[in-house]
Amino acid sequence: MSLQKSAKERFFHALCFEVLAIAICTPLGVWLLNQSLAQIGMLTVMISLVAMGWNMLFNALFDRAQLRMGFQRTMVARAVHAVLFEIGLLLAIVPLAAWWLGIGLWEAFWLDIGIALFFMPYTFVFNWSYDHIRAAVVARRAGKKRLADA
Hints:
It is flat, with a radius of gyration of 19 Å. By secondary structure, it is mainly α. The mean pLDDT is 89. Helix content is 88%, strand content 0%.
């Protein structure tokens, strides 16, 4: 399976990930939090935008730190990366959710924990599915190209 992905495909992957997450989280949030569809829908879009922006910024900073410090991306480095990323996201999302929903920081913290618990299996299933669908599409295109070249 080819790991080469264009910027266009990476954008498509991220967009699909976020759109599906919003489609799942919005009705779930309405049901769990007893808030309006508009209120939760806007919150999920804001969280998605914050997460995408933080992801790009954090990864650029992490890459720069790796260049400066010269460490390898071992399992420990990847664990530190994941923990630091989630802490930064928590620091951004908790105040946003508290303000938007008119709840306390403690309640928003637990909401964020719930969101993180949702995203762990969601990310796994989404990426596993995407990889399998992508492999089938790439194989199909390669087969069509071979037929056209013959």
